[in-house]
Amino acid sequence: MVRIETERLTLRPFCNADAGEFAYLAGDWVVASMTSDIPYPFSARQAANWLAPARGEVRFAIERQGRLMGGVGFYRRSSGIAELGFWLGRHWWGQGYTTEAARAVLAQGIRKRRLPGFSSAHFIDNPASARVLLKLGFEPMGHATIACAARGRDVEAVTYWLDRNQAVRVLPAYARQEAPRSRWRAWLGRSRPV
User: Fold this and answer.
1) Dihedral, CA atoms, 134, 33, 39, 119, nearest 10 degrees?
2) Alpha carbon distance 75, 77 (integer Å)
3) What pLDDT does 89 receive?
4) CATH number of the domain enclosing 103
5) What phi-psi label fits residue 137: left (phi over 0), alpha (psi between -120 and 50 degrees) or beta?
6) Are 160 and 119 spatial neighbours (Cβ–Cβ below 8 Å)?
7) What is the pTM (predicted TM-score) of this model?
8) Average pLDDT for runs of 10 along the chain of length 194
């Protein structure tokens, strides 16, 4: 998996050495209770098992100056639509880091993976995630109940959608650039006499 550099952050693959800090940050009740799949309490052993992405998942560690801050990524469904998810340790809330990281991941998904669109959701008691999704160009689509591992029950959530065309309009210019074509694809795409 690639590394992505933003203005203030590095997005990189998670590694086993992240397990302890990941458990500490994501295992905080105020963080875990706003995610669907992080339990509470959250041990380093559980974190180590969570770090390896499943098939169809793209997960990045959010890092600033060499320090793990959170995670962002997506799960690609069989339909091709990707579900965006993110979390950030509470020490870094309110500084735009989640928006910055998620914007870069969305751009990578649109540009490199040619995804047709993204869905996402947040629990109704999480207005901060709503603000992030709206800044990224997502539009609210409806309500659903989503299981929350930390709370041990289903929680009402707001669902969102961002299609490819809208993403290209709201993401940074580098998302609009076409991915460089490989030599083989360039050769296949060249003009042929008729």
Assistant:
1) -20
2) 6
3) 98
4) 3.40.630.30
5) left
6) yes
7) 0.86
8) 93 96 98 97 94 88 98 93 97 97 93 88 98 97 98 98 90 50 47 45
For 84, the domain range is 4-176
Which of the 8 DSSP states describes residue 18? G
Strands (DSSP E) found in the chain: 4-5, 10-13, 57-64, 67-76, 82-88, 117-123, 139-148, 153-163
- Pairing of β 57-64 and β 67-76: antiparallel
Tokens coding 80? 């091709």
Which residue from 171, 151, 101, 168 is spatially nearest to 129, judged by alpha carbons? 101
Token digits for 133? 């999704």
Domain count, the chain: 1
Q: How many residues are given for the chain?
A: 194
Is residue 181 in a domain? no
| Residue 160: C-alpha distances to residues 82, 94, 96, 123, 136 (Å) | 12, 21, 20, 11, 11
**Structure confidence by residue, pLDDT tens digits, 7-40:** 999 999 999 999 999 999 999 999 999 999 999 9
